Amino acid sequence: MLARGFTLIVVCLLVLATLRLAGGENFAIVLDGSLAAPVTTPHFLPSVGIKKFLNSFTSYEFPNPFAPQQNPLSRLEFPVDQWFLGVKQAYKAQTWSLTGEFWINVNRESSLKMQDSDWDDDLIPVQKTVFSESDCRLNRGLMFDVGVTLPTPLTVSSYLRPVAGWRYQHFFFTTHDGYQAELGNGGSSLPGDGIDFKQTFSQCYIGGTLQTSFNPPVLREFVPPASVGLQCDYAIVNAVNEDLHLWRIGHRVTTEQTLGHCWHVSANVGWMRAGSFTARFEVDFKRLITHGDHRLSNLALDFSFGGARVWSDQASVSAFAEYLF
């Protein structure tokens, strides 16, 4: 798993290095074939932005620790398609930069359904026996990202650099007003709140970034000069889940402690509109996969076993307003 991740980083850096060499030793790559001098004056770059997740989700499943050990025994899938509001602050020097950003959700209800599936027939372990769909709200979504780019002997230009950083994500969902179907027993409604689900992802990442510009002659009269950015990175992920079933007797809580990885790529383009203001747009995709232990506790019951799997696909588009000073 780790070897595949580092292989991805090497491939990304080789691609970025090829692009960098096309631009010359100490200059940015300009996609009309000319060269642009690098920015040499350190500057701050604050921005505010809005982010929309598209058809994204976060899920987990666990096996039956007893015979016949069907895997999965249960799977829960929570949608992520909310809007987030964010602030970002960057300090950019000639050979390094430091960037921090913070995001919080601005709406709660998802337009998609949470899905819950069970395979609890020990005589036919491959048969799904219970399926439910529920409305889902994101009570709180928080995301942090702090990253630093540094020079190396191979990246003396200020445009191609390695990057390292830390990301943190926290999601708190509540399902409500669902419908459940059971094999051979028909269906029933699930009024009110059903599950409180909390999840955190802590990610330490390394990778590479490329900054370039785009100003083809045929568009200069119609489109302002654009700056283009690309980042590819790989992260080690520590994930923690907590699931409280509100309909169950007692205080039934399941938790997962899992470890895995994340593959991430993002691309952005910005246009200088007026003075020091820039409008920037970004597309971003993350795939997180972790494995570890599942724990069930309810009153006097408390036991753990392995085989839990947590995964999340997160695609988003963002728009920023930046100010250079």
Report on the structure:
This protein is mainly beta. It has one domain: Beta Barrel (Lipocalin), CATH 2.40.128.90. It contains 1 helix and 15 strands, in the order αβββββββββββββββ. Strands 3, 4, 5, 6, 7, 8, 9, 10, 11, 12, 13, 14 and 15 form a 13-stranded antiparallel beta sheet that branches. It starts with a helix and ends with a strand. The relative contact order is 0.17. The N terminus is likely disordered.
> What is the total tally of β strands?
15
Number of helices: 1
Mean pLDDT: 86
Reported CATH architecture: Beta Barrel
Alpha carbon gap, first and last residue:
43 Å
Q: What is the CA-atom radius of gyration, in angstroms?
A: 23 Å
Give the CATH topology.
Lipocalin
**The CATH top-level class label:** Mainly Beta
Helix-strand blueprint:
Elements: H1 2-23, E1 28-29, E2 35-36, E3 43-53, E4 56-62, E5 74-80, E6 83-92, E7 97-105, E8 114-118, E9 130-149, E10 160-182, E11 186-214, E12 226-245, E13 253-274, E14 277-298, E15 301-323
Antiparallel strand pairs: 1-2, 3-6, 3-15, 4-5, 4-15, 5-8, 6-7, 7-9, 8-9, 9-10, 10-11, 11-12, 12-13, 13-14, 14-15
